[in-house]
Design goal:
globular, mainly alpha
């Protein structure tokens, strides 16, 4: 049996699917986040070793690192949907990009906020113009700029295309953020952040971080699909299927 996936590119066809997926992803996300918090606080070492041992405050990485990963991943997804919309002129693609942007901005803000609380005991300051911090801040501004540009243009089609172009231009920030912490030559890179290496992380810590990341990922699905439903209803307000859904079934005429 062949499934015609292209029919789901229609907002009317995807709307009910999004509604069914939101509670599934929400419940799964809640369970994973609670599990990772428990594992991170009770099943991981009390302090990290090394030349500069870090005490209990290191546990902020269970939120900070997954948030930073999600901030970059969601921007990549946002730009991908924007590119699909520009190439194929599909309305649902632009709607998906708009639905993802607020969640991506939230995760970027959380990464910056938790990074500041990490920096105070680690580096002695809440903020430093470290390459990773600066590039992550610029990514946050890219999310804000995407949403602001789209809101500033009244015509939704023009707004979709203008914001999509900005999102694609902003892709340049992702390799900048990655190489700001994974610099090929650490001796020539002025960065407070340590190099990122999953192979060097203690197994229980890695379990908590990856589980939290998966929980955040599912949360992103839930919030994006819930927001997408609102965007679809707003954009398709004059469509017959929306009017029929809002008005409900027409009562049968009573006999005289």
């Amino acid at each position: 049996m062949t499934i015609n996936w292209f029919k789901y590119a229609s907002p009317a066809a995807f709307y009910p699917i999004a509604g069914r997926l939101v509670p599934v992803f929400s419940i799964a996300a809640l369970g994973l986040v609670l599990f990772s918090l428990y594992w991170g606080f009770f099943e991981t070492p009390e302090r990290l070793g090394g030349s500069n041992p870090q005490k209990e405050y290191y546990r902020i990485i269970f939120v900070h690192v997954p948030s930073a990963w999600m901030s970059m991943w969601l921007y990549l997804v946002l730009a991908a949907w924007s590119g699909i919309g520009l190439v194929f002129n599909t309305r649902l693609s632009f709607m998906m990009a708009n639905a993802i942007a607020p969640t991506g901005a939230i995760f970027t803000f959380i990464a910056l906020w938790t990074g500041a609380f990490w920096g105070r005991p680690s580096w002695g300051t809440y903020w430093d113009w470290d390459p990773r911090l600066t590039s992550e801040l610029i990514l946050f501004f890219m999310y804000i700029g995407f949403m602001a540009l789209h809101s500033a243009i009244d015509d939704s089609r023009r707004a979709d295309r203008a914001a999509a172009l900005l999102a694609i231009v902003g892709l340049v920030m992702l390799p900048v953020i990655y190489w700001s912490i994974n610099c090929p030559d650490p001796n020539n890179c002025a960065a407070l952040h340590q190099r990122s290496s999953l192979t060097q992380i203690e197994s229980n810590i890695l379990t908590a971080m990856l589980t939290m990341t998966l929980g955040f990922w599912l949360y992103s699905f839930a919030t994006a699909f819930a927001r997408l439903q609102g965007i679809i209803l707003t954009r398709e307000l004059e469509s017959a299927w929306v009017r029929d859904m809002v008005s409900g079934p027409t009562p049968a005429a009573s006999g005289g």
